[in-house]
Amino acid sequence: MPTPLPIDDALPAVREALRTSGAVVLEAPPGSGKTTRVPLAVAAEVTGQVWVLEPRRVAARAAAQRVSDELGERVGETVGYAMRLDRQSSERTRVLYVTEALLTRRLDDFADLGAVILDEFHERSIHTDVALAWCRMLRRQRPDLKLVVMSATLDGEAVAKFLGCPRVRAEGRMFPVEVRYLERKDERPLELRVAAAVGVVEGDTLVFLPGIGEIERTAALLGNYEVVPLHGELEGAAQDRALRVPRSRPEDAPRRVILATNVAETSVTVEGVRTVIDTGLVRQAAYDAWSGLPTLDLGPIARDSAAQRAGRAGRLGPGVCLRMYSRADHDARPAETAPEIRRIDLSATVLALGGRELEWFEPPAPAAWRAAIALLERLGALERHDRALRRTAIGDAMARFPLPPRLARVLIEAAALGVGREGAGLVTLFGRRLGGDLVHRALDGEGDPREKRRLEGMLPPGGRPPADRERALRLALLAGLPDRVARREGGRVRFADGGAAESEPGKDGYVLVTEVDRSGTRVRARNMTTVDEDALLEGATVRNTMRWVGERVEVREELCFGELVLDASPGRGDPAAVADLLFANARPTMHRLVPDWDRGVALLQRVAFLRRRGVALPELDLEIAARAACEDCRSFGDLGGTSLIGAILRVLGDPGLVDRLAPETVRIPGRPRAAVGYDADEPYVESRMQDFFGLADGPRIGGDYALVLRLLAPNQRPVQVTRDLAGFWQRHWPALRKELMRKYPRHYWPEDPLNAEPPPPRPPRPR
Question: How much is the pTM?
Answer without folding.
Answer: 0.73
